[in-house]
Write a structure and sequence with these properties.
The complex is a heterodimer of chains A (174) and B (334). Chain A has 174 residues and is an all-alpha fold. Chain A folds into two domains: 2-93, Rna Polymerase Sigma Factor, Chain: A, CATH 1.10.1740; 108-168, Arc Repressor Mutant, subunit A (Orthogonal Bundle), CATH 1.10.10.10. Chain A has seven helices and no strands. In chain B, 30% of the residues lie in helices and 37% in strands. In chain B, helix 5 (83-96) packs parallel to helix 7 (265-272). Classes of the chains: A mainly alpha (174), B alpha+beta (334). Chain B: Residues 13-52 form the FecR N-terminal domain.
Chain lengths: 174, 334
């Protein structure tokens, strides 16, 4: 009896994976700003769905999967924050001038391109964008600092993000 | 038209991105988003491209991150107008013009002193007595004082690129106004515009200190800078900003190109005056504060000037032998 339930269950999850894995990873990457973290968390989410025991109470497996994934993403962000706070405490103990290792994820020209793109935008849009995407502050904090509504902050960030993406595309695929 | 459609889709994708980003995004939002991704495969593709850029920006190196935060996420600090510096620099250039290359030597108490300078629009290559190679930019002045225990170079104005022969027993120190740069086995570029100084390290490491720092801050105030980093010293706030720069950008001037990263227009103009046969002047102080990033060919300054009104709200006019940059909002000065 038990084995039968589980195998049906596995089928369902395979179907979920086939139909929604790309969207799930995209959703998680949006939350985590890292493709590899997104893939890891997606794996974990499937595992959770696969091993859950209150299967009968779930209406939509898909909604449940995304909900679990969203929660796992929040956990991961929290852990990341603890780690970076810890790193910050450690760093402040080190003598000034011991420069941190620098790895260039983005070439200097690309950063210059972003800088140019941001200059083309209204000051509020580029400020909200940099505070959220680069500094990693949440929408609420940005809204408070800039004395704007959260809705406006989101609007500015979305606008700046679309603009920068368009500018980067012009460079990368003219 | 297709372009507009693409831009629209990009905006919609970015809008979804901010909505999903909020940790409290509702199940309804998720469902609506999933429905949108299923409408058209390009929807999810566009969303992924937005994701990709956001992820790339999230993994930015510390220096780029700091420079973007400084440029966009902080309220602008009150700045001292740049015009006096630019004016002072132009005066210096007028005095230097006509003088070709000059060097004199003075021997006193075991210290060898030399003065080097260069004419407008002429870079010079110099080998110092210790073998250190110096490329001296146009209209630049530098003195050297070498003794048994120390090699000291004072950059009075302009720009110089140093490839230092390292000698443990005789530190190599470059002074540029308030800033002192000590080599730790290095090649680096120093540009001095009035009291504003930028240092670009292309190889090895240097230690940078503000010589006016308060006592007690002595050693900890030193900033160690490695290859690929650019330090800008702002005399108005006595602050140093760290950014990144490639060796090609740092020494582009040796190939007749001046590179500027986030420099006030007044600094750009003062440096161009080291290469321009006609002096350039900024008539309205506010213009000098505009920030400029880009490269300028020193043998094509006129075409750069022609294009300038397209990016800045200014007018370029000729008055006698001078080129005047004035605010487009103000009435012409004649």
């Amino acid at each position: 009896m038990n084995t039968v339930t589980l195998s049906v269950h596995v089928d369902e999850i395979e179907k979920l994976f086939r139909e929604h894995n790309r969207a799930l990873v995209a959703f998680l990457q949006c939350r985590l700003s890292s493709l590899s973290d997104a893939q890891e968390v997606a794996q974990e989410a499937y595992l959770r769905v696969l091993t859950m025991d209150n299967r009968e109470e779930i209406e939509s497996l898909r909604s449940y999967l995304f909900k679990i994934a969203g929660n796992l993403a929040i956990d991961r962000l929290r852990k990341r924050k603890v780690r970076s706070d810890f790193a910050a405490v450690q760093a402040s103990d080190e003598p000034v001038g011991e420069s941190t290792p620098v790895h260039h994820a983005m070439a200097v020209e690309q950063v210059a391109g972003i800088r140019r793109a941001l200059r083309e935008l209204p000051a509020k849009a580029s400020q909200a964008f940099v505070m959220h995407v680069i500094e990693g502050r949440d929408f609420g904090t940005v809204a408070q600092t800039m004395n704007l509504s959260e809705r406006m902050v989101r609007y500015h960030v979305a606008n700046a993000l679309a603009h920068c993406r368009a500018r980067v595309d012009e460079k990368e695929m003219p | 038209m297709a372009k507009n459609r693409q831009d629209d889709m990009l905006h919609i994708a970015a809008d979804w991105w901010v909505r999903l980003r909020a940790p409290d995004a509702s199940a309804d939002t998720m469902d609506q988003w999933l429905a949108w991704t299923q409408e058209d495969i390009r929807h999810l593709e566009t969303f992924e491209r937005v994701n990709e850029l956001a992820s790339r920006l999230d993994s930015l190196d510390t220096l780029s991150r700091q420079s973007l935060i400084k440029a966009f996420a902080q309220p602008p600090a009150p700045r001292r107008p740049w015009l006096p510096l630019a004016a002072a620099a132009s005066v210096a250039i007028v005095m230097l013009s006509g003088a070709m290359y000059l060097a004199w030597s003075n021997r006193e108490g075991g210290v060898h002193t030399r003065v080097y300078n260069s004419a407008i629009a002429q870079n010079r290559n110099i080998t110092l007595s210790d073998g250190t190679q110096v490329a001296l930019g146009a209209a630049s002045t530098m003195t050297t004082q070498f003794s048994q225990g120390q090699r000291r170079v004072d950059l009075k104005n302009g720009e110089a690129f140093f490839q230092v022969v390292h000698d443990h027993s005789r530190p190599f120190v470059v002074r540029a106004g308030d800033i002192s740069v000590r080599d730790i086995g290095t090649a680096f570029d120093v540009r001095r515009t009035g009291e504003r100084v930028t240092i670009a390290v292309t190889q090895g490491r240097v230690e940078i200190t503000d010589v006016n720092q308060k006592p007690g801050e002595t050693k900890s105030g030193a900033l160690e800078v490695t290859a690929g980093q650019l330090v800008s010293y702002d005399p108005g706030t006595s602050s140093m900003t760290v950014g990144s720069i490639t060796p090609e950008q740092a020494t582009a001037w040796r190939d007749d190109r001046l590179e500027f990263i986030d420099e006030p227009l007044s600094v750009v103009i003062a440096n161009l005056n080291r290469y321009s046969t006609r002096p350039l002047h900024i008539a309205d102080g506010d213009l000098g504060k505009l920030s400029y990033t880009g490269s300028i060919r020193t043998d094509a300054i006129d075409s750069w000037l022609d294009a300038l009104p397209q990016v800045f709200p200014l007018r370029v006019s000729n008055e006698g032998n001078q080129v005047i940059l004035s605010d487009v909002e103000r009435a012409p000065r004649r």
